[in-house]
Amino acid sequence: QVQLVESGGGSVQAGGSLRLSCAASGSTYCMGWFRQAPGKEREGVATIDSRGGFTYYADSVQGRFTISQDSSKNTLYLQMNSLKPEDTAVYYCAADSQWAPLCSIRGDEYSYWGQGTQVTVSS
Questions:
Q1: pLDDT above 90 (res 5)
Q2: DSSP calls for 12-79
């Protein structure tokens, strides 16, 4: 079984940077970051394959966000640069222990979720 603990959220001005961390216990295969803004549905931000390191990014964050992992610590990171007010949301890390040929951007494919951390970007 997997438990996820997130950290690194906060408030920042537009153009600034934040790094989110997600410490995982247990066996994971696919890991990802998702976000949900007020009044909007949850959306996938980025995913990574813990075996091969293949990554996926949503078009809205491509070139600004970087997902990475430290396999020895079983920790997931999201480096967020050039933040925009529209990035304001609750960010969740997610994991699944089942092997898959590609790690899905769909949240319903993940079994384990962190508690969420608030990211607020002011203009």
A1: yes
A2: EETT--EEEEEEEES--SEEEEEEE-TTS--EEEEEEETTT--EEE-TTTTTTEEEEEETTTTEEEEE
